[in-house]
Design a protein that fits this description.
CATH topology of the largest domain: Rossmann fold
Oligomer: single chain
Number of helices: 14
CATH class of the largest domain: Alpha Beta
Number of strands: 21
Strand order of the largest sheet: 2-1-3-4-5-6
Bound molecules: S-adenosyl-L-homocysteine, iron/sulfur cluster, FE3-S4 cluster
Largest sheet: 6 strands, parallel
Number of domains: 4
Shape: globular
Strand content: 15-25%
CATH superfamily of the largest domain: Methylthiotransferase, N-terminal domain
Length: 439
């Protein structure tokens, strides 16, 4: 019987880090660690970091500063740094922060238990040849009826602003059979919705029966799993939206009508400088094709404002594109110069200008988002209940279009897929009441 030790995990950044954190906790679980939500109780603290913008990276060092006192009080406590800052900074983290014991990159975390066992201050930022997924224990953690599943990892696109190709490495797709197994295991534990993850998930090209499979074929195979009601995937690149994937949005009922398809800018000059390899026009044509296949699809995007060289005219072109598409959701960021990326060499747009543009853009997006949400009032939609709400008798879940919905339904259960009527719309969510009858 191994001694029970407590593990506290903090996750920064994207959904893939959420997935990775669960897998690291499972890997350490095999060495006797159980997770805790109370950092003071932890025998090991694991910070799974993000390097995408400067602010995200800085959070690591402010958290490490706070952990210092805790480690003085509890010298046996181990501190591990995982994720994209670990990959980017490696041993530098040990030099900068004496509280850190272990640094492990996103492709080496299956080796975490051995590192903990070995003791001492260690760094592993290799891209090992062995497949980390096949070294990890079988998945068992379960947070409810929805789950992430990493299908593809890494990026070969090298957008001029982005660290991901350096921190996650080259594009790799997991084999079809492994993904189907992992998905079946999740469904057997009660999962009803799976979101396939990848930095460029629609570039998926995994080894499958009869050759290489693309994402559309993988989604069609997943849709055959009994009990799996909903499929989503994120994040996609506009250049990898193949015809068969667009077609799947039209004829695969499990594939939800929501697509996160980052465009970044609406100015061709800036898109070129970003090395995005698509134009505003090609993006608009692509959206038309997607909407032809699935007219009610809700589109979402990422935007960067204040990329080096961005003029007012470029910014207006981005606003024009937003007006032309009509987004139901979006994330927007002020450009952050990242060490080692080509754009970091160029002179930045003054901060006040970038701030003003970000406000502009966010106001426009918020208005579009709100209008689309308000238009749902009176309509009947399906909601997958994820957890009880704060109010007595309330359930909370997501609609097909990924809107958060609060439903007054005292008999509702987590994991239930329910038909509801939308009765109200507020800033970030919808209110609804159950409607009887078959889905
Ligand atoms: N693979 C995805 C996104 C990965 S990062 C894609 O290609 O779209 C998520 C988002 O962070 C990006 O879409 C981009 O909008 C933003 N981002 C990436 N690098 C950034 C930087 N240096 N400064 C500001 N935002 C950045
Ligand atoms: Fe980064 Fe571009 Fe790759 Fe997305 S496609 S991860 S933005 S380099
Ligand atoms: Fe951040 Fe790495 Fe994800 S940089 S956004 S944690 S891929």
């Amino acid at each position: 019987m191994t001694e029970v030790k407590k593990l506290f995990v903090k996750t920064y950044g994207c959904q893939m880090n959420v997935y990775d954190s669960e897998r690291m906790a499972e890997a350490l679980g095999a060495s006797g660690y159980v997770t805790t939500d109370v950092v003071e109780d932890a025998d090991m603290v694991l910070l799974n970091t993000c390097h995408i913008r400067e602010k995200a990276s800085e959070k690591l060092y402010s958290d490490l500063g706070r952990l210092r006192a805790l480690k003085v009080a509890k010298p046996g406590m181990k501190v591990g740094v995982a994720g994209c800052v670990a990959q980017a900074e490696g041993a530098e983290i040990l030099r900068r922060s004496p509280v850190v014991d272990l640094v492990v990159g996103p492709q080496a975390y299956h080796r975490l238990p051995q590192m903990v066992e070995a003791g001492g201050r260690l760094v592993d930022t290799d891209f090992p040849v062995e497949d980390k997924f096949s070294q990890l224990p079988e998945r068992k953690s379960l947070r409810g009826p929805t789950a992430f599943l990493t299908a593809q990892e890494g990026c070969d696109k090298f957008c001029a602003f982005c660290v991901v190709p350096y921190t996650r490495g080259a594009e790799v797709s997991r084999p079809v059979a492994r993904l189907l197994d992992e998905a079946r295991g999740l469904v057997a534990q009660g999962v009803r919705e799976i979101t396939l993850l990848g930095q460029n998930v629609n570039a998926y090209h995994g080894a499958g029966p009869g050759g290489t499979w693309g994402l559309a074929r993988l989604l069609r195979a997943l849709a055959q799993i009994d009990g799996l009601a909903r499929l989503r995937y994120t994040t996609s690149h506009p250049n990898d939206m193949e015809d068969d994937l667009i077609a799947a949005h039209g004829d695969l009922p499990q594939l939800m009508p929501y697509l996160h398809l980052p465009v970044q800018s609406g100015s061709d000059r800036i898109l070129k400088a970003m090395n995005r390899k698509h134009s505003a026009e090609s993006y608009l044509r692509l959206i038309e094709r997607i909407r032809a296949a699935r007219p009610d699809i809700l589109l979402s995007s990422d935007f960067i404002v204040g990329f080096p060289g961005e003029t007012d005219a470029d910014h207006q072109a981005t606003l024009d594109l937003i007006r032309a598409v009509g987004f139901g959701a979006a994330f927007s960021f002020k450009y952050s110069a990242r060490p080692g990326t080509p754009a970091a060499e160029k002179s930045p747009v003054p901060a006040e200008i970038a701030d003003a543009r970000l406000q502009d853009l966010q106001a426009l997006i918020t208005a579009q988002q709100r209008a689309m949400q308000d238009a749902m009032v009176g309509r009947e939609v399906q909601v997958l209940y994820e957890k009880p709400g704060r109010r007595e008798g309330q359930m909370v879940g997501k609609s097909d279009h990924l809107h958060a919905v609060h439903v007054q339904h005292p008999e509702g259960r987590v994991g239930q897929l329910m038909r509801v009527r939308i009765t109200g719309s507020s800033t970030n969510s919808l209110a609804a009441e159950p409607v009887s009858g078959p889905l």
